[in-house]
Design a protein that fits this description.
With about 325 residues, the chain is of the alpha+beta class. It contains 7 helices and 15 strands. A hairpin with a 2-residue loop joins strand 5 and strand 6.
């Protein structure tokens, strides 16, 4: 490939809206150009790099026993309504009406493909003898990202590898999950990245267990908590606090409960400053509206309530004080 015969528009200076080094380098080296917020064109050099990354992913997924297919980006909304995830995704799901003859058809651009792959398998798998089976694709995804930023890291249109396993038992599911877990580690290792697998929230995807492979960075919007003593690591949204020892009750007259006015204080920090205490000695009340009911959640002052929490057992009960935050990019 000759430079004079391709498009490599390099830049001497970094654009003011390029916040992080990866975004700046990709723009200055002529790998990408922005069409609009959250949407980018991959130029010839950027596409070559993208294809190399895709090839690593394909080789490792094939090695793990998965087979590649390609599913459509355009989905009937009725498929999403059937699973109940049309409401779960809310405005993140890009949906629209199109006219077909005299009818209006409600369609969506796929942010993920669980609905499509399960509909396919339901019609094509007729016996357990056809299982186990793991299928994957490398496909364009669409999400109505309200705050696109960080270059190609947080966009409305992006390329993603997604894999789906089908098994006849929980034991088979665990084996398939482990195969994907190991494949992701090999992919990141071949890309030369230092990474940390962490427990994560499944969100609208669902499921009882989920992991994210984080690359520690000075930039990003996710925080992970990692215990160097026992190896426990979790996304901040998913991390749990272990058992805490409490006093059995007041030990003196100084510990008895009394009513104290706290005028003009709206936050835990303001209340602590007024009372001369620390946030871990306080309890805060959070009010939620859920299923047409008003719910009050009481948590320790220095803790945060997880809106999407599930009942998992913490594996780091005795060394949570050693957790430390790491800024990470997905």
């Amino acid at each position: 490939m000759l430079w004079s015969q391709t498009l490599i528009p390099t830049m001497k200076e970094s654009p003011s809206d390029a916040e992080i080094p990866s975004h700046q380098f990709m723009l200055r080296a002529g790998l990408i150009r922005q069409l609009m917020a959250g949407v980018y064109t991959y130029l010839p050099l950027g596409l070559r790099a993208l294809k190399k990354a895709e090839q690593i992913v394909r080789e490792e997924m094939d090695l793990a026993g998965a087979s590649e297919l390609l599913m459509p980006c355009l989905h009937p909304v009725s498929l999403w309504e059937r699973t109940g995830r049309f409401d779960d995704f809310g405005s993140v799901l890009i949906s629209f009406q199109v006219s077909r003859r005299e009818n209006q058809t409600h369609l969506a651009l796929g942010p993920t493909h669980e609905e499509v792959i399960t509909d396919l398998m339901a019609s094509q798998i007729s016996s357990y003898r056809q299982l186990p089976l793991t299928l994957y694709q490398i496909q364009t995804k669409f999400r109505n990202e309200e705050r696109p930023r960080f270059g190609v890291l947080r966009t409305s249109e992006f390329i993603m590898k997604d894999a789906y396993s089908f098994d006849v038992s929980i034991e088979g599911l665990d084996r398939s999950y482990e195969a994907m877990y190991e494949a992701y580690g090999r992919i990141l290792h071949r890309c030369g990245l230092s990474f940390l697998p962490v427990e994560a929230e499944s969100g609208p995807i669902g499921g009882d267990a989920s992991h994210e492979f984080m690359v520690p960075s000075d930039n990003g919007e996710d925080q992970v908590l990692h215990c160097e003593s026992c190896g426990y690591a979790a996304n901040r949204e998913r991390a749990e606090v272990g058992k805490i020892s409490h006093k059995s009750g007041p030990t003196s007259e100084d510990d008895l409960i009394e009513t104290v006015d706290t005028p003009g204080t709206k936050t835990i920090d303001q209340v602590c400053e007024l009372l001369g205490c620390t946030s871990d000695q306080m309890i805060k009340t959070l009010i939620y509206r859920a299923d047409d009911r008003t719910i009050a959640v009481l948590v320790r002052g220095d803790h945060e309530a997880n809106d999407d929490s599930r009942s998992y057992r913490c594996t780091c009960r005795f060394c949570r004080s050693n957790w430390y935050p790491v800024r990470s990019d997905r």
